[in-house]
């Protein structure tokens, strides 16, 4: 069954125009047909169509389905955007499918300047990508995506109780992420830009409680490293 998204479905029992069009025009659903709706905050509702309008599909909620498993862990990926925004959008889509909870784009000292010259990622597009990936992977929660936070501010805004890691390529006493992370924690993983973090940034991260980690022997692109980090932490927590 297809999954639909409406963040305020309890207050406004109708689908958005885009979701209404998909239900009525694409899936050919009509009055009396059943559909499942998520609110992006953990809620899953089973409903029936009352008015099959392609511009405003009105529904009636019949059932609220409890979450079968509440995640004990949380994955927050903080990553410097690259000049190729298509790759970053691809990474976001795949990370949402795998199970990321928050993605923050950070401005580091080596962040490519072309990012700032009319090519910035648009928040609306990021949300659309995230919603699509959430529905495709049958998830209930929409990750928080933040664009764009300066490096210094990101470090200042860290909260207690986080398990912090910085993945970098400098010579250091680094441990594989899967060996350093403990299941069931709230993780924050820093991934640097093309060219990696500067030595100063690595030192600043470590001063702020970020443990240096490795993602393996291969030298990965920025967006690949982000995906590998999220996948590693999610696999670590399978069965927890």
TrEMBL record:
Q: Where in the cell is it found?
A: Cytoplasm
Specify the domain of life of the species encoding this protein: Bacteria
What region holds the Ribosomal RNA small subunit methyltransferase E PUA-like domain? 15-61
Q: State the family it belongs to.
A: Belongs to the RNA methyltransferase RsmE family.
- Pinpoint the Ribosomal RNA small subunit methyltransferase E methyltransferase domain residues: 74-233
Which keywords accompany this UniProt record? Cytoplasm, Methyltransferase, rRNA processing, S-adenosyl-L-methionine, Transferase
Give the NCBIfam families listed for this entry.
PRK11713.6-1 (NF008702), RsmE family RNA methyltransferase (TIGR00046)
- What Enzyme Commission number(s) appear in the record? 2.1.1.193
Do you know which CDD domains this protein is assigned to?
A: RsmE-like
Q: List cellular component terms (GO).
A: cytoplasm
Q: What is this protein called?
A: Ribosomal RNA small subunit methyltransferase E
Q: Fetch the InterPro entries from UniProt.
A: Alpha/beta_knot_MTases, PUA-like_sf, RsmE, RsmE_MTase_dom, RsmE_PUA-like, tRNA_m1G_MTases_N
Entry-linked Gene3D superfamilies: 3.40.1280.10, Hypothetical PUA domain-like, domain 1 (2.40.240.20)
Which GO terms label this protein's molecular function in UniProt? Answer: rRNA (uridine-N3-)-methyltransferase activity
Gene Ontology biological process terms from the UniProt entry:
rRNA base methylation
Q: Which purpose does this protein serve, as stated in its record?
A: Specifically methylates the N3 position of the uracil ring of uridine 1498 (m3U1498) in 16S rRNA. Acts on the fully assembled 30S ribosomal subunit.
Listed under catalytic activity are:
uridine(1498) in 16S rRNA + S-adenosyl-L-methionine = N(3)-methyluridine(1498) in 16S rRNA + S-adenosyl-L-homocysteine + H(+)
